[in-house]
Fold:
Amino acid sequence: MDTATHAIVGLIVGECAPKDVKHRRKIGLGFGMLPDLTNIIFVHPYLGWVAERTIPFAVPRDFLTHPEVLDHWTYHSWLLTHSLLFWALVFLPWWRRSKGHKVAALAYAAHLVADLPSHSGIYGLEPLYPIRFVFSGWFDAWLWPPAPIIASIVVALFSYVAVRRMRERILWPSERESTSPEPV
Ligand SMILES: [Zn+2]
Structure:
């Protein structure tokens, strides 16, 4: 799945959080994109260099022509940040700290859950990484040409608008208390 769609999914997680969580949308958006940071700073530049691209940044089909990337540490860094085991180790110890920590953990988890079905075959996620178990999803969103990617971003944006509207009516108990008039 493309990083923009992931960011919007994270934004939706932030929107759903109680309004007293400071910067809830920014936290959701940032942590929703975070797992792909390894992709942007390690995997794509390395593979772009291997594939001898003028600008060393791989395009999706480079993965198919250079499957040896599967064994490279850059790809393993991506597998690590997409591991549910890694998520549990990094985020669960902080779970009770604050609502902001919970938003961060849930936005990050939403990214991993969205990537599970959208990477198939040998390029499937390894949800228990470093324990080797490849989960083969159902389709390959990462190989999509621009049109379906734009469609995915548009659908995510409409979903965000819908959730934002719903949030005007569906409130957390803490929000109801703060808006209801004082009892006489
Ligand atoms: Zn990802």
